[in-house]
Amino acid sequence: MRSPAFALAIAAILAAWVAPAGAQEKKPFAADPAYADCIATIADKPKEAFDKAQGWRARGGGIGAEHCAALALIELDQPGEAAVRFEAIARKAEAGSLRDRTALFDQAGNAWLLAKGAEEAENAFAEAIKLSPRDPALWIDRAQARAMQKDWRGAETDLNAAINFDRSDPSAFVLRASARSALGRRVEARTDIDAALAISPDFPDALVERGAMKRAAGDRNGARADWIRVLSKSPKTSAAESARAYIEALDFNPDR
User: Fold this and answer.
1) Which of 53, 67, 85, 134 is the most exposed place for a label (fewest CB within 10 A)?
2) Would the pTM of this model clear 0.85, i.e. be above it?
3) Are 57 and 172 part of one and the same domain?
């Protein structure tokens, strides 16, 4: 069974290709019935979707066929190959608008994250940022790639940018808290966690981190309360898996 983190990464890759609500701009090939048919096949029959895309490409399907094939490769657990294809499409003149090319580089970056290619992911996100430097989600994505390389200062810098553009996303504050904690700046990290919970009181990742901070400070009951809240409010998330592991560790070592 795939992990929640894997599912979330796939969701991020797909979301990077969805235009904002109300946007009038259309993808260069989205209206093609062959593309719609190929995309509709991916979730249940990714190998069939990939074969369809390859056949369509041979018949002149162009980047629509190439894009569907790349998405199918994600479902076929070949994210590295998918990332290479997303980047190749993004660099083609017919890839579409600036928004389209940004989304393609973002998809490439998220695919590289799935493939554990943190450096390649950072480079792909950097290309996306060059095209759309005021998009906070791109800065968050690159921060995650930098965090995978333990480049905590670089991650913090990117998260500072993301928060400057949008202070309403609790995930940016949680990620910055992680970077600051890794840098030994725990007071600032706790401030970020409090900011995330002020935005969204039940945000699961923030509750997990606050619980860990409470446990480190000796507040076992407070830590348990935060982790149980995660299990109650967000039981099917990766944060819930972390909370469950923390609780088990707490029970296994009652005096520590």
Assistant:
1) 134
2) yes
3) no
CA distances from 165 to 140, 159, 160, 235 (A): 11, 10, 9, 31
Domain ranges, residue 72? 1-19+27-127
Looking at 89, 112, 127, which one is the last position of a domain? Answer: 127
pLDDT in tens, 119-169: 999 999 999 999 999 999 999 999 999 999 999 999 999 999 999 999 999
CB 227 within 8 A of CB 198: no
| 39 and 119 together in one domain | yes
Q: Considering Cα of 94, then 97, then 98, then 103, what sign does the dihedral take? A: negative
Q: How many structural domains are present in the chain?
A: 3
| Cβ atoms 18, 106 nearer than 8 A | no
CA distance 129 to 106: 9
Distances (CA, A) of 220 to 99, 104, 178, 210, 253: 47, 45, 20, 12, 11
- Please count the other Cβ atoms lying within 10 Å of the Cβ belonging to residue 123: 17
Q: Identify the CA nearest to 139 among candidates 118, 119, 116, 163.
A: 163
